[in-house]
Task: structure prediction
Amino acid sequence: MEILAIDIGFGFTKASNGTRTLVFKSLLGEATDIQFKGGILGESSPDENIHIEVDGKSYFIGEMAERQSNVRSFTLDQSQFFSTYAKPLALAAAARLVGSYMPVGLVTGLPIGYYRDYRESLIKVLQGDHKVILTSLNGKREEKVIKINEVKVIPQPFGSLFNLMMNDLGELGDKRYLHEKIGIVDVGFKTADFTVADKMRYSERGSRTTDTGIAKAFGMIAGKLREKSNVNVEIYRLYDAVERGMIKIKGKEYDLKAPTELIFGQLATAIANEVDRLWSDDWDIDTIVLTGGGGTALSKHLQPLINGNVVTVDHSKDSRLCNVRGYWKYGKHLWSRGVPLAAPTAEAEPLKQ
Result:
């Protein structure tokens, strides 16, 4: 059975089959007929040109949708996201990473606050046989059947913990995490997840999901740009601009460094205050893991505000992949090695050694 991990995020969808990773914006677009296909000075990456048909609907996804679609869909509403977006995004990733008719074991995750409400519906949407059609840039259509035999949904932040404590064989490497009390701060695009694993037992008291993800900062930056330029910049188009510290609108350059520093500082303060409030009784936490793409973006602002032994992601690696790499390692441990390791759940089940 092939093992596949998919992190279906509000900002990006991330996936791994253990040897290859895939990251694309969680953006759906209307598929249109393109007169000229390919790069002007050579071919672009196939991962930037995702055209898929699912359940009779044809989509451009990610960069393809942003570049080519007249009608684009992006949402931060969780109900709409899981009912409409999750399936085509997940299958777009799966179709790139697994073979047709190959049995697949899939590990994915949900924010703590969404776990109870959406776990069963997400399993129902993803499990089973799915007929998809991929269309390449040269117009070649490839039909695939994605056979997802098993779906395991775990609380999202534990992906980063599994990534720290397991190696690529799914074996327990750093066993100190089994015996310590660990706090995890996972800052994503829409959400920030806070959870505590006490000797790998989930703590309901120390766990919650808030809407203090990086999208809140991007929304404020977009608001300032609207005041100066009279243009509504979609927040999913701010990733690269914020990283560069500059955006060009209608030929005019706007500096983003100063407003970004200010707004990121405000967001980091809000998250740090939440940590202090939520974990006021958990003064015996051994290590706090700061993870997620937003966690890395905010780390220089956030780390000094959090009291304790804070572990951050290696900045040379793509922090958006921390959870999905952990999902894959957990799947490897669960299905390839035959060792009974139960994932922590929002129902406070213990993780067995």
Notes: The domain at 176-317 is CATH 3.30.420.40 (Nucleotidyltransferase; domain 5). Residues 52 and 134 are 5 Å apart (CA to CA).
